User: Which sequence fits this backbone?
């Protein structure tokens, strides 16, 4: 009898513990995935301007929004091409946004652009305009090239960085096209 009373007491306590507690909240590991129209892994898209290949964007993950006109990407790699189709630079970043309607891309977090002729640009944020085929930023940057290193704030350039307009030079030198000088 004592055993039956003891078992009944444990069952009552166990049942109360299960019914009195609150259910753990289930949350998404990534809020983008919850609100995206579509999520794709291992994405690649070709960026053209009037039929001319400008870039190829690849990413580990793509979150599509606004009728697939805005793509939020993670672990991005964008390869830039000349008008003759030759690769001239590669951009990598941890995340970015590509707007297919405007033809613009913004790369964020650990942005690095490396050209085929050995230039390396590092910044926290960079914009790309596919129609003008220009990269730009208002952020601090470091440009390392064979002829020297340049630190500055803000620039506009072609993806190969052969015609770079720097807004503010902090330190460094080399051969650059600065604001106010002719290209």
Assistant:
């Amino acid at each position: 009898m004592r055993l039956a009373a003891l078992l009944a007491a444990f069952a009552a306590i166990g049942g109360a513990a299960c019914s009195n507690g609150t259910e753990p909240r289930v949350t998404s590991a990534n809020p983008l995935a919850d609100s995206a129209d579509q999520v794709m892994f291992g994405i690649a898209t070709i960026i053209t301007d009037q039929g001319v290949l400008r870039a190829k964007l690849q990413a580990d993950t793509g979150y599509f929004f606004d009728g697939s006109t805005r793509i939020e990407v993670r672990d991005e790699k964008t390869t830039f091409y000349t008008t003759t189709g030759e690769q001239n630079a590669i951009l990598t970043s941890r995340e970015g946004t590509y707007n297919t309607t405007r033809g613009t891309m913004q790369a964020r977090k650990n942005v690095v652009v490396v050209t085929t002729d050995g230039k390396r640009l590092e910044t926290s944020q960079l914009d790309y305009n596919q129609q003008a085929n220009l990269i730009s930023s208002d952020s601090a940057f470091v440009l390392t090239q064979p002829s020297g290193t340049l630190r500055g704030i803000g620039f506009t350039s072609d993806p190969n960085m052969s015609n770079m307009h720097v807004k503010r030079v902090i330190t460094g030198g080399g051969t650059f096209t600065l604001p106010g000088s002719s290209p």
About this structure: Residues 37 and 65 are 5 Å apart (CA to CA). The domain at 32-172 is CATH 2.60.450.10 (lipopolysaccharide transport protein A fold). Residues 2-20 form the longest helix (19 residues). The chain has one domain: 32-172.
